[in-house]
Amino acid sequence: MAQNSSRPVGRHHLHIPGPTPVPDRILRAMDTPIIDHRGPEFAKLAKRCLDGVKTIFKTTNPVIIYTATGTGAWEAALVNTLSPGDKVLVYETGQFSNLWKAMAEKLGLKPEVMASDWRTGADPAKIEARLAEDKNKEIKAVCVLHNETSTGCLSPVNEIRKAIDKANHPALLLVDTISSLASTDYRHDEWGVDVTVGGAQKGLMLPPGMSFNAISDKALAANKTAKLPKAFLAWDEMLNMNKVGFFPYTPATQMLQGLAVAIDMLHEEGLDNVFARHNRLAEATRRAVKAWGFDIICKDPKYYSPTITSVLTPEGVDADAFRALALSNFNVSYGASFGRFAGKMFRIGHLGDINDGDMLGGLAVTEMALTLANIPHKKGGVQAAMDYIASAHAKPSRAAAE
Ligand code: PLP
């Protein structure tokens, strides 16, 4: 809420990396009477969602829809494919890879971490080298985040698949796309991913509370012998019920109403246009940040995230105090800092139902807040972003390629 104001005026600038703004059309689709989740109308809705979501993951195999946040789908990917004591290789890209690793440990798996400085994505060559050393094929799965939300680094999933194949290793490839799906190019089948974990509240533009597992044939086969305990998250019962348009339990009917419309909206815009828009907003944001004279956490452009830019604040600046000031004065939210960058960065989310004007508004309040907070910076960040966006619209083909 703006300072000295008794009511929030206009829209909140939601620039956290999810949940993202929910479009009015989706809100209206969710604001409908509850239907019988065992009735024919529901079966039609479920089919629309179950078929439609495959086009977002780019798979022809089943996609499981959970009434759970992304964390539930993380757990589902592990418990449905692995057995107690199995070794899993987790590439440490940041806070969220560490949380997935901690979950694996709690479930009785043996995670081995490939450490990093949190400033790049996962390196396929390092994964290949480690798998090549694993002569007894003890590693049963490789876990990577397509997009590390805590840092804004994107990992090359396609190349990681090739690295696993080059090492001639049978490990499953489990990929978290919670902050990349439906905003960044992703191809479950073509890239040979075994389980893709997705979430509702970012690129899919829905409220939190729904998540996904896209599953390969190899993962389905692994499921037959996986011995970790599972009940609510078990794939088999879900797959059987989904075949006839139902769920084993009462699903989040209103989230499904929203999902059906979200899928329509993504296809109306065109997935490639959605990806180009995210690339454009990401580049505009990075240009603003560089013009202000700040470093981006992701230090190698080849790993730059299309959905999140994490900004390193100058030495001695409390990034969390800056976020609080920006919120109270300008009604803008940025993502919090984590782990090794606690208090030293703020994360700008540029994903979901966000257009050029929304982004420029967010960047403008950021520049004003930097001034208000007396944080030393150069002027001209917003101008740099505007110049880039204008040039991208003048040459759309170049913007799409960047
Ligand atoms: N994985 C990634 C990459 C995330 O960004 C998040 C949440 O932001 C999660 C997992 C956990 O998802 P949730 O908070 O929906 O349980």
Strands, helices and their partners?
Elements: E1 13-15, H1 24-30, H2 40-57, E2 63-66, H3 70-79, E3 87-91, H4 95-106, E4 110-114, H5 124-133, E5 139-145, E6 147-148, E7 153-154, H6 157-166, E8 172-176, E9 195-199, E10 211-215, H7 217-225, H8 235-243, H9 253-269, H10 271-292, E11 295-296, E12 308-312, H11 319-330, E13 332-334, E14 345-349, H12 356-372, H13 381-394, H14 396-401
Parallel strand pairs: 1-13, 3-4, 3-5, 5-8, 8-9
Antiparallel strand pairs: 2-10, 6-7, 9-10, 11-12, 12-14
The structure holds pyridoxal-5'-phosphate (PLP).
Residues 18, 69-71, 96, 145, 149, 176, 178-179, 199, 208 line the site of pyridoxal-5'-phosphate.
Mean pLDDT: 96
Number of helices: 14
Give the termini separation.
36 Å
- What's the β-strand tally? 14
CATH architecture of the largest domain: 3-Layer(aba) Sandwich
User: How is the CATH topology of the largest domain named?
Assistant: Aspartate Aminotransferase, domain 2
Q: Strand order of the main beta sheet, please?
A: 2-10-9-8-5-3-4
Order of helices and strands: EHHEHEHEHEEEHEEEHHHHEEHEEHHH
Under CATH, the homologous superfamily of the largest domain reads Type I PLP-dependent aspartate aminotransferase-like (Major domain)
The percentage of residues in β strands lies in 5-15%
Summary, kept brief:
The protein is α/β, with parallel strands linked by helices. The chain has 14 helices and 14 strands.
Q: What features would you highlight for this structure?
A:
14 strands; 14 helices; Aspartate Aminotransferase, domain 1; binds pyridoxal-5'-phosphate; Aspartate Aminotransferase, domain 2; 2 domains; 402 residues; alpha/beta
